[in-house]
Design brief:
Mean pLDDT: 85
Radius of gyration: 22 Å
Organism: Neolamprologus brichardi (Fairy cichlid)
Pfam families: DAO
Cofactor: FAD
Keywords: FAD, Flavoprotein, Oxidoreductase
Shape: elongated
CATH architecture of the largest domain: 3-Layer(bba) Sandwich
CATH class of the largest domain: Alpha Beta
Low-confidence stretches: 1-26, 333-344
Distance between the termini: 24 Å
Number of helices: 10
CATH superfamily of the largest domain: FAD/NAD(P)-binding domain
Number of domains: 2
Largest sheet: 10 strands, mixed
Bound molecules: flavin-adenine dinucleotide
Number of strands: 25
Family: Belongs to the L2HGDH family.
Length: 401
């Protein structure tokens, strides 16, 4: 199929602010070795890692939006997490700690702005102290750098307008514009010879019936069909669909579990004249009844201070307005008995929250040629370069590259 597709040039990624202006229409050549679906930070980091390891293979990155990383990767707290919270030995713990180091090194190397402004997790009630100490132990097991416990005076020394009785001090925690980082991964990918196409929504992944002309590989090709009706051939597919990861898995014939249930997180912004009140990230001690880190103060790279996010069931997966509504997404959300008041990411068949990152493939012709990133919630931005290393290893193991 001849497919006219919009291609982003490397130069367009580079011009921050004027990002993506330089969009050209070109023709996609018929067949690629690997197609990556979804140009969020996980898809971009992984496409970059794969092409750097395998420069002789042909790669295409497919994104349904007009621009890259408009969804989770462009709407987050912007924190470089240090790895405190996660179960020791979990993927989250390992990949966050390694990912934070790689992220700092990457930003340094590329000249991307970041601030290592630190973070306090503050206990304000006596009953929170055992949980704070347990978090400290967990952080130490995860090899989080420079973690200490400070008292009320230590809190005031670091955050003069913050009051608490005890806090975990994580000076290694930082902030960055994750979308800018994601776009920089895209530049690397493009410069290494990868093709990035936008406004192409994947709506089917199947096996090709007959072998492409000139191919010596028989019919070992997947065929990706776009919502416009046109198609693309490739040997292997990696999906990094964020809020649509379950649907991408399902259209390739793989399991739809775990499903994604979308929760909206709203932020408040401090009035600029009050910005002096907050220096670094200030978080509460997480409430064990909820799986998220809690509403927190976060300084942004532009100097503003955000407070949030809350967690409200969203009626639409990519709905950023309070009244955004999609009957299908809403129905999906109601299919699960999620714990009350919890911002969902992926939920398993029994309605339990899937805490860790999940990457899996399937069985059969298509399933054995596809790898899905199923659950990549926070801290997947921090972990993106480490996730990319792990997925690239997995792609090399599963597929004969
Ligand atoms: C409120 C909030 C705060 C957060 N704060 C932090 C933080 O401070 N630090 C941190 O490390 N992490 C944070 N995270 C987590 C982090 O932002 C995400 O884990 C990360 O961005 C996930 O990246 P992704 O590439 O998997 O998904 P996304 O960024 O959502 O990308 C998925 C892409 O796939 C595309 N796509 C989907 N379906 C198709 C299709 N059929 N065809 C083509 N393209 C498709 C989408 O358009 C999208 O561009 C936060 C997340 C949220 C929601």
């Amino acid at each position: 199929a001849l497919t006219m597709i919009r291609i982003l040039s490397g130069a367009s990624f580079k011009a921050a602010g004027g990002l993506l202006k330089d969009i050209q229409s070109r023709q996609l050549h018929g067949t690629y070795d690997i197609a990556v679906v979804g140009a969020g930070i996980v898809g971009l980091a992984t496409a970059r890692e794969l092409i750097l390891r395998h420069p002789s293979l042909s790669f295409v990155l497919l994104e349904k939006e007009k621009e890259l990383s408009l969804h989770q990767s462009g709407h987050n707290s912007g924190v470089i997490h240090s790895g405190i919270y996660y179960t020791p030995g979990s993927l989250k713990a390992r990949l966050c700690v390694r990912g934070a180091t790689l992220a700092y090194e990457y930003c340094e190397k590329k000249g991307l702005p970041y601030k290592r402004c630190g973070k306090l997790i503050v206990a304000v009630e006596q009953e929170e102290i055992p949980r704070l100490k347990a978090l400290y132990e967990r952080g130490m097991k995860n090899n989080v750098r420079d973690l200490t416990i400070v008292d009320g005076k230590g809190i005031r020394d670091r955050e003069p307008y913050c009051r608490g009785i005890m806090a975990l001090d994580s000076p290694y925690t930082g902030i960055v514009d994750w979308r800018m980082v994601a776009l920089s991964y895209g530049t690397d990918f493009k410069e290494a010879g990868g093709t990035v196409v936008t406004e192409y929504e994947v709506n089917d992944i199947s096996m090709i019936k007959e072998s492409p002309a000139g191919s010596t590989e028989g019919n070992n090709f997947c065929i990706i069909t776009f919502s416009q009706g046109n198609e693309l051939r490739c040997r292997y597919v990696l999906t990094c669909g964020g809020l649509y990861s379950d649907r991408l898995s399902q259209i390739s014939g793989c399991s739809r579990e775990p499903r994604i249930v979308p929760f909206r997180g709203d932020y408040l912004v401090l009035k600029p004249e009050k910005n002096y009140l907050v220096k670094g990230n200030i978080y509460p001690v997480p409430d064990p009844r909820f799986p998220f880190l809690g509403v927190h103060f976060t300084p942004r790279m532009d100097g503003s201070i955000w407070l949030g996010p809350n967690a409200v069931l969203a009626f639409k997966r990519e709905g950023y307005k309070v009244y955004d509504f999609s009957a299908q997404d809403f129905a999906d959300a109601l299919l699960f008995r999620g714990p009350t008041g919890v911002r969902a990411q992926a939920l398993d068949r029994d309605g339990n929250l899937v805490d860790d990152f999940v990457f899996d493939g399937g069985v059969g012709d298509v399933g054995s040629r596809v790898l899905h990133v199923r659950n990549a919630p926070s801290p997947a931005a921090t972990s993106s370069l480490a996730i990319a290393e792990m997925i690239a290893d997995e792609v090399e193991n599963r597929f004969t590259l």
